[in-house]
Amino acid sequence: MSKPAQPAKSPLRWWDLGVGAVCIVMLIPGGVGVVSRRGDAANMQPFAALFPELGILAGFLVLYVVTIRPALRREHAGLPPAGRDWVALALLAIGLGAAVAMSPGFATLQAILYPMIWTITGGSGRPRAVPIGWSAALAAATGVGAYFAYARLGFSDAAWSAAMIAACSFAFAVFLGLWLTRVYSQSEQHRSLAERLRESQAEVAALSEASGAAAERERLSRELHDTLTQTLTGLVMLSEQAERALLAGDSERALERTVRVGATARVAVGEARALVATTQPLGEGELTPALERVAARLHADTGLEVECRFGPVHLDREQEVVLLRAAQEGLANARRHANATRVVLVLEERESGNASLPPRVVLRVEDNGVGPAAGPGRASASASASGTPGTPGTPGAREAGAGGFGLTGLADRARALGGEINFGPREGGGACLEVSLTGRQSPAVPADQRVRPRRAASARLVTPGSEGV
């Protein structure tokens, strides 16, 4: 999360500079200052005659430091004006009127007093009538003081001049106050938006980090299920077979199973190292040899007859990994839940029927086991393949046996690549798991080469067109 903005060390620095600048301007002889000069230095007011004006200016500074400055600090902190703040504003208006009556040059103080009034009384959420009313009071006090000053100086139109000064001052104060208030309000909105944006960015970063961690955990869960979990399950089955062989006195079979336990354990170690190193599960080889190794391992571990029918396909590396995982899942389910004696593993490329569209690459795992009891379950880019836990032979039982990362994990992988999964009973008995992905455009392949039968280990070779499972 972003750190909160640090408060300014001197929030009233600009007010102090403004008050100081106005006081300096008023001390400059001539012009708008309280020190008058009419012609030359000989006509300069004596220093002693300036004591009243200087005293009023000093009183203004004291009033600013003692009352106005704390009021401005409270406003900067977002606090409403206190009772003494209203008293301070009243003293400012009355004092300004008396000062202008003594010397019209004190009207210059309006340049700093009006912004103070609007800042203290025109905060966010307060009605505009409050600062406008206080501006009218200050303008009226200035006008009254100007009238007495002009009358004392012998102006014939003192009332008219004082009224014009008061009216112009009030109009300028309201215009400037409303404009500054609008600018301040917009700046506060922008500041608030910027703060919310920073908070949103920090939240997005935290969510992205959490999402990345969750995605990595999910990836590792799938990889563990598709590799180590299945290999360790094979180890359990092999050890149970070795134990039964020992109990039956079949030392030869027990030795053969023990050898297989060692080989499978070494495979598990290799898979664990691959996960730690985040290497490609296919290694440097292609998909077809990897599928043959998986099928050969299943045949060696269980004695299941595994037939491989592989045709030439054109896939990206990531797609090959998904099909490898699908084959591992299908073969593992056939071994654990289907009570099958024979499995057919098919990899083929199907034309889409449109020359502008790439072909579909299909991997199919069929077994002659008990098969799902319910109708086909379909998992595509928009649906999950997970079933409901049930009796052995149902999709739910296979998914439950997979620990929750089987067909659901395949569905998620296929969704990411725009593919789909079909799982259901096979015609003639057993089950069929089919994964379909969009392949890459490739040169035309003769029809007699699109499905090339192979066999894994001692699996029986079945040529295309011969009897199926």
Describe this structure in words.
The protein has 469 residues and is of the alpha+beta class. Helix content is 57%, strand content 9%. It has two domains: 13-202; 286-469, 2-Layer Sandwich (Heat Shock Protein 90). It contains eleven helices and seven strands. A hairpin with a 5-residue loop joins β5 and β6 (431-438). It is rod-shaped. The chain crosses the membrane at residues 12-35, 47-66, 86-117, 129-150, 162-181.
Write the layout of secondary structure elements.
Blueprint: H1 13-27, H2 51-76, H3 83-102, H4 110-121, H5 129-152, H6 158-247, H7 251-277, H8 287-302, E1 305-310, H9 317-336, E2 342-350, E3 360-367, E4 377-379, H10 395-401, H11 407-416, E5 420-425, E6 431-438, E7 452-455
Parallel strand pairs: 1-2
Antiparallel strand pairs: 1-7, 2-3, 3-6, 4-5, 5-6
Helix pairs in contact: 2-3, 3-4, 3-5, 4-5, 4-6, 5-6, 6-7, 8-9, 9-11
Region (Disordered): 368-405, 439-469
Biased composition (Low complexity): 371-400
GO molecular function: phosphorelay sensor kinase activity; protein dimerization activity
